[in-house]
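EI: anyone free to look at a 727-residue chain?
SC: sure, send it
EI:
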Amino acid sequence: MFRLFFILSLLIACLSAGDKVEIYASKLSSHNEIINVAGGVSVIYKDYIITADRATYDKKTGDLELFDNIRANHAGKYKILGKYAKLNIAKKERLFRPFYMIDNKSDVWMSGDEGKATEEEIDIASGVVSGCNPIDPLWTMEFSSSDYDTESMWINLYNMRLYIYDIPVLYTPYFGYSLDTTRRTGLLKPAIGLSNDEGFYYQQPIYIAEQNWWDLEFLPQIRTSRGAGIYTKFRFVDSKVSHGEIKMGYFKEKEDYFLKNNLQNNSHYGFNVKYDNRDFLNLWSGYDFSGQSGLYIDINHMNDVDYINLEKGDTTDTATATQVLSRVNIFYNTRQNYFGTYLKYYQDLTLDNNENTLQKLPVVQYHYYLDTLLKDHLLYSLDIKSNNIRRQTNNKVVQTDINLPVTLQSSFFDEYLTASYTANLYMQHSAFSGNDSRTTFDYRDGYYTRNYHTISVASQLTKPYENFSHIIGLGVTYNRSAWSQESGFYEDNSKYCSDIANTTDPDYDARCEFYNITDIDNAAQLEFTQYVYDKQAKEVLYHRLAQRISYSSNANRYGELENELDYKITSYLSFYNNMFYNYDQNRFSKVFNKVSFTNYGVALHLSHLYKDSFINPQTSSDPLRYTSYLTSSAEYEYNRHYSFSALYNYDLESREKKSMSIGFMYKKRCWDFGIKYSENNRPILTQSGESSIYDKYIYITIVLKPLMQPSKNSSFITYKLPNKQTN
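SC: here you go
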């Protein structure tokens, strides 16, 4: 026995690799082939560091046994505790009894009767796993056996029983999950719901990620009283500068539900394709172009709006519209020139077909960027855009616009005043094709060209103070038409389409739908702006006043007065206002106010929009003259555990509630629980036309961390209350 601390190194030869075991202790004794060590035993083997009260080593069998107060740390990733452990270097086996492991990164712990490790895998017999505090954990998973891959950090549990406290809530013969965020194939968190009219809802995402540049997700779902369907998402990254997504879906209605709700279609399907490439010319051609190129694809198609509504059970964050836009944008950009082409396709979901919907296939554009002459006093640019406006029926047109502004500018009085004069040359040419069955009017090819002048004078002053800086700006812009010339289509329609009295003519829409020339009004635009910045250069106040004065018509001399104000009253309270005053009606045509408060754990947003079109509806189907819409949202974080939220949107004019929700969330280190009641007015397509359904939901959120990752609106169980259909 030694009185001084010493180091004992055991070198054990392995055929595949010379694994080295180092044993540190303060006491040693030996008998035959058995070595006994005690007193602060530390064992270093590969990336294991094991400590124990005492240990024995059998030279003959190669077994290293450790006893009492065993602590094992593996590469800083997880810790293993136990009373007995055996390490066999030749067989590369580790045995711990009883077994207790905690992963340092995820705080998930596992306890079992025995744990046996070979290479990178640990087999555990009869135990329990949880992410909660080991003392009275809120949730646990008990299992008959388990295996854990320390390299991939994947755990398999067999005969798993999930307990909330001591209450069993789920059994499955197999359950596997990951302790890290590495993308891997498997099942994602399911969505469960119950509806009065759609029955039991279940969606089980299946995730496939066999390579790091793509993944595939299948989302089969069933609604027992309505039908079943499947959606799929394929995401990919094909280069460092490009990525894309392809989504498809199909849902089949049950006959009873289809007839009861008078739906337009008994099946709903569609697809979405998105792709973004920020350097496709260099990537695909192999050449080294100096300019920047880009390709953006966003293609959407569906047979009706329920393709969007049925994608998932939680529709609180689902945006539905009556029109779907598909587009493809391609451009090449240099320091001086820009070339682009854009394809736009519109699908109106309120119509049975889109044969008469105007499409832009394609738009071609060239732009010469602003350039200067005469020491930056003369500025000019050029923009050419050609629109191929098509549809399956009736007339089509290729409409080309050319803009050439030339500006002469300078500053005066030591740059206190800037002035500029711009000569604007504009031309549009239209070439028609097809026949319009809606009118007897004949479209003739033609052009429209004009010139108008713009004079601008502006000044900006800055005044610094001790705690803030104040900036004011004054500007006057005056437009005056010079000359214009027209032929063909424009000569036939300029007076007719500019006369507002003709808008009631049944032929007006068909005859003037391609006429988009706006007369240049001889008018001045007066604008006043001011800014206030604090000492940290943060904006405190923004205020703008704008007034248009026309010199072409005495009847409409003054345009609407616009006032815009954005005031950060304090660091947590702000107010925004935007309003327009109409002199002819002596009324406000638009008033928008928004108040935001964020402090003391409270986030409150309240806004109101008022609009007056000054046009009284003639029939019940005409839009209302007034718009008065209230939106509000509130969130309150009581402490790090409890938070509450509410939302309320109401149409004051139609006296209709658009949406509302109220809920709370309870968060702990190892779990989240929340419940929310929500109402939402969503559109549908019936055989009688466009309609809507007022949905009522109860969302229950359960997140067992770190098995599940919390996210916004990550409801686990959804209960849908009886709804009502509105027209």
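EI: Residues 1-18 have pLDDT under 50 and may be disordered.
SC: 👍
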